Amino acid sequence: MAEQGLGGGLGGPEIWLRGPVVAPAPHRVEPPRLVATARRFAWVAVHGGAGTTTLATVFGGLDAGRGWPRPERGEPESVLLVARTHATGLDAVSHTLDVFRRGDAPPGLDLNAVVLVADAPGRLPRPLVQHIEVITSVVDVYRVPWVNAWRSNDFTAGPPRESSLLARLTGSSSGDR
User: Fold this and answer.
1) What is residue 17's three-state secondary structure?
2) Neighbours of 48 (CB within 10 A)
3) What is the greatest pairwise CA distance in the chain?
4) Contacts (Cβ under 8 Å, ≥6 apart) of 67
């Protein structure tokens, strides 16, 4: 007499008929890849001729000129104040920093740093260096050296090596000058 299995058929225990039950391999969910993107910046000139157009060309970002960026229109809220390293430029930086300190800058803007562009080749006079030290005591300051090629709109070399930290901040590649 043949033995009936649970399924009504002939044979042994059900495991013999179906084979071993194996737990399905766990479905591996890959963690989402985090992609760091460079923060978007607006270059804001604190005086005429500060160099925002050149910096936006070389480092990327929005050239806001002498105006404030408008985040409500999709412009960056992160601000880099730009000035030349002459006395008038440094005084303008101090004045604009005071605007932020008093809370008089447009709401929603984030002051990230001051970028000082060399106004001439060579070393700065001691009083200007001291003024820069005062500015550096209250905000991050990045320096951009004199680049003679920029005078004739030659931007092919990219950011100067001395500005590698600024290049990293803005997400642009550092040049090999």
Assistant:
1) helix
2) 10
3) 112
4) 44
Q: What is the pLDDT of residues 1-47, one digit of tens each?
A: 555 545 555 555 655 555 556 666 666 777 777 665 556 899 999 99
Name the one residue in this structure whose structure tokens are 């970002």: 61
Angle at 60 between CA 54 and CA 64, to 5 degrees: 65
Please indicate whether residue 119 or residue 11 has the higher confidence score (pLDDT). Answer: 119
Local structure of residue 150 (DSSP, 8 states): G
Burial of residue 99 (CB within 10 Å: 0-12, 13-18, 19+) is middle
pLDDT of residue 85: 98
- Alpha-helix runs per DSSP H in the chain: 14-18, 52-59, 87-102, 126-136, 164-170
Q: Which two tokens mark 86?
A: 């002459």
Q: What is the DSSP letter of 59?
A: H
**Alpha-carbon gap, residue 112 to 158, rounded angstroms:** 22
Enumerate the H helices of 14-86 as residue ranges.
Answer: 14-18, 52-59
Q: Within 13 Å, how many C-alpha atoms sit on residue 43's CB side? A: 27
Q: Could you confirm whether domain 41-170 is CATH 3.40.50?
A: yes
Residue 177 in contact with residue 148, Cβ under 8 Å? no
Question: In the prediction, which pLDDT does 176 show?
Answer: 41
What single-letter amino acid sits at 94?
S
